Amino acid sequence: MTTKRIELIAKPNPPHFVxxxxxxxxxxxxxxxxxxxxxxxxIMLDYNSNHNFPPSQIPKGVGxxxxxxxxxxxxxxxxxxxxxxxxxxxxxxxxxGVQWMTAASGVLHKEYHERExxxxxxxxxxxxxxxxLPAKDKMSPPKYQALENENIAKVTLPNQAGIVEVIAGxxxxxxxxxxxxxxxxxxxxxLEKNGEVEFTIPAAHNTAILVLExxxxxxxxxxxxxxxxxxxxNKGEKFTLKALExxxxxILSGEPLNEPIAAHGPFVMNTRAELMDAFRDFNEGKFGYLxx
Amino acid sequence: xxxxxFTHFLTSNAQLDQELTDKILSHCSRKKIKKGSFLLLAGExxxxxxxxxxxxxxxxxxxxxxxxxxxxxxxxxxxxADRESEYFDxxxxxxxxxxxxxxxxxxxxDLIIQLSKTDERFIxxxxxxxxxxxxxxxxxxxxxxxxxxxxxxLDFIQTYPDLTLRVPQTHIASFLGITPESLSxxxxxxxxxxxxxx
Lengths: 292, 198
Known about the structure:
The complex is a heterodimer of chains A (about 290) and B (about 200).
Chain A: E1 6-10, E2 16-18, E3 22-28, E4 42-53, E5 61-67, E6 70-78, E7 81-85, E8 90-93, E9 98-102, E10 107-113, H1 115-120, E11 122-132, E12 143-147, E13 153-156, E14 162-168, E15 170-171, E16 174-175, E17 184-191, E18 196-200, E19 206-213, E20 216-218, E21 222-224, E22 229-232, E23 238-243, E24 247-254, E25 262-264, E26 267-269, H2 272-283
Antiparallel strand pairs in A: 1-22, 2-3, 3-4, 4-11, 5-10, 6-9, 6-11, 7-8, 7-10, 9-12, 13-14, 14-17, 15-16, 17-24, 18-23, 19-22, 19-24, 20-21, 20-23, 25-26
Chain B: H1 5-13, H2 18-26, E1 28-33, E2 38-40, E3 48-54, E4 57-62, E5 68-74, E6 79-80, H3 83-88, E7 95-98, E8 102-108, H4 109-118, H5 120-146, H6 149-159, H7 169-176, H8 180-197
Helix pairs in contact in B: 4-5, 7-8
């Protein structure tokens, strides 16, 4: 097996606010070399780097908006998020938790800092991903997978190197907790200083890592600092991470869907006609109703 | 040949040849406009017509109580002007404001007036635009006189399919001449009707 090498290291774009509650650096699709096709099926990655929110009696967040054609995955590293949707679902994503929402044929949702957390404020760190759905599943019924940290599969690494949380996919034979529509891996490596870990991922998978805390050395050579993302080449299967200090790293890999992408705002379909349908259905109330 | 929406707009709506298109473009300036900036203030005489290359403009009046009434939105590929101010050299009754960060072509009014007196191709082009404008104004008047809130909303989403995701409900309600509460009710009733069907 050959080594999977780094193709580019992306530094965080200047942050912007999504609503008033999420201060994010966008990596996918706006960073040069990280468009929707390059990391297919991961078509959007917003990273709320560690940010201190002051206390607020009115929870900050994003008001009602629709989605169709993909899944949104929110990983909470610090802070708490509350969400509600037009099918009556809702819940709280606590620290270390993951909310995997399959928007598919369409939902309206809103997401805010959790009410009690908002009153004290504090450190807030999140990743939001959009995972594209295969054409055949885009109009399937919406669903939720709420994963609290204690329910996420974990692998303890040898030599007190740390742990790997398997959110989805597989690591060393341990299956991920979330079900997916196409083959992909979503892992958190939480490494102690000098902790090492090796990953084996098919060459064809689009693969990237995001360093949320600390810094890592990849394949014994290149250093990836905090808040940076490293994209790998689609060659080779193995890569190693060594934590230069206590570190948290998100590892993403997925088999590309290789289907046409027609995207506009919160809708990601395969054709322009399907996009027009999405706007019409949303405007005509077919996504349901949710109070602001 | 550049790749602007504006160029495409000029060439696809009229038999304007390269020479005339180039002439119009050379008398226009393309500007980046920040969200919340004004392109026209009520009381001023308008100096330009505006073509939206990217972004969104709104044209509105403000009544004696300070309430805003939106006459028109102009997203990408739309023209916005105040023909009264432009042709009759009157102070405008309207504000034109950028709702999003926008990229706008400023078309000099003297050029438009000169061409609309001298160039047959431009006259035909301008006539087409004028008739379309009159058609939409007539429809607006009839709707404001006799259409239900739901009928107005359904027509709005035909005309502006993506604006429900780009502007607050208060803007849409202002355009439709209904209260935000009525708009909310209409949208909820539509959703309930679809839920009933499924």
